[in-house]
Amino acid sequence: MPNYPLGPVVLDLAGKELLEDEAEVLQHPQVGGVIFFRRNFESPEQLTYLVQRIRSKRPNLMLAVDQEGGRVQRFKEGFTRLPPLRAMGDLHERTPAESITVARDLAWLMAAEVRACGVDISFAPVIDADDSYSSVIGDRAFSRDITRVSALGKAYIEGMVEAGMATTLKHFPGHGSVEEDSHEELPVDERTFEEVWQEDMSSFRDLLPLADGVMPGHLLFSSIDPNPVGFSPFWLQKVLRQQLNFSGIIFSDDLSMEGAAVIGDHRDRAEAALNAGCDAVLVCNQPRRAIEVIERLNGVAYPTNDRLQRMRARGAPPAESLAALQRTLRWQSAYTWACELLQDV
Predict the structure, then answer these.
(1) 3 state DSSP class of 108
(2) Which of 66, 105, 139, 253 is catalytic?
(3) Can 253 be counted among the known catalytic residues?
(4) Is residue 262 within 8 Å of 273, Cβ to Cβ?
(5) Strands 62-65 and 67-69
(6) Phi then psi dihedrals of residue 97, to 5 deg
(7) What is the crossing angle of helices 85-94 and 146-162, to 10°?
(8) Is 66 designated active site?
(9) What angle separates helix 85-94 from helix 96-116, to the nearest 10 degrees?
């Protein structure tokens, strides 16, 4: 059973079972992780078995999902239906102190449920400030108020950490002020660096010291740098690493998104992202392209392993199974909050 150091490629699977050709790909030294989608999930029991199958082939892989809540929740049946982050922001307007407790509890709930099935992380939290422009962020953001985003983001991070889950801030340096959806096209933001620094980046400056990872958005700040953020040495090395002193892992956003297409094909995108400063690259929904990326990177040494390894789950999960977790008082209290917030959505 190969247990190579983790490579920089994070890819996905076709369905609810691990296919033999997929198992072979997962054992390649350039692979570092798997991200799950809705098509990979049927039930907590099926997901747990799938995780066990993956671990039997490559025990040290990082396993991830987007389990934000609201519009972005991959695991549903048997899991708690999570409200969007905006519900916590709306609660903060009415009862700030209570909303901090709720954000911490719901983050713990999300992370504990994911961990109970053997998955290491959810790429969370979103700390974009929604300026009512973005079609893709919207209620995925806590608020348009930067101060509120920072306060709730801090509580959310604390809840994830309590459950033993590493955190990933997204989408650096802020996706909420552009209308375009980076899944469909490359959004262009014409603001100056000072405007971005004082506005959207405020929450990143506040929360980066608490974070394990960062995911830049596929965004072009045309007056600041000619490269989209995820392919920009200026944004990733000069600003994120040097100016903000961030030492955690930098994940690319999905290289299959149209916002990345300006760089070239998937192989070009992966090389450009890694050379710009990303530690790991996501190649989703395009298995042939993922293999092409692996082949392009084959034999190239990237210093990914330590940072990616630190994203693995920490300590024993809060419960040995999702069913056992749901019998705990901690879960039942958090579940009540989730149900109450959903009534207001």
Answers:
(1) helix
(2) 253
(3) yes
(4) no
(5) unpaired
(6) -65, -45
(7) 120
(8) no
(9) 160
User: What is the spatial distance between Cα 261 and Cα 240, in angstroms, rounded to a whole number?
Assistant: 23
* C-alpha dist (Å) from residue 132 to 70, 136, 162, 174, 180: 17, 10, 32, 13, 12
Question: Which tokens sit at 49?
Answer: 């078995």
- Name residues whose C-beta falls within 8 Å of residue 231's C-beta, 6 or more positions apart in sequence: 260, 263, 269, 272, 273, 276
Structure tokens of 11?
């890819």
Q: How far is CA 28 from CA 101, 112, 268, in A?
A: 43, 30, 20
**Residues 196/234, Cβ–Cβ less than 8 Å:** no
What torsion, rounded to 10 degrees, do the Cα atoms 121, 123, 126, 132 define?
-140
Joined tokens for residue 311: 């994203």
The sign one gets for the Cα dihedral 63, 66, 69, 74 is negative
Q: Which residues pair with 302 in a beta bridge?
A: none
**Nearest to 196, CA basis, from 213, 215, 176, 181:** 176
Coil, strand or helix at 68:
strand
pLDDT digits (tens, 9 = 90+) for 45-62: 999 999 999 999 999 999
Q: Report pLDDT digits (tens) over 274-287.
A: 999 999 999 999 99
Among 145, 183, 206, 225, the active-site one is: 183
Mean per-residue pLDDT, 305-314: 92
Split at pLDDT 50, 70, 90, the class of 135 is low
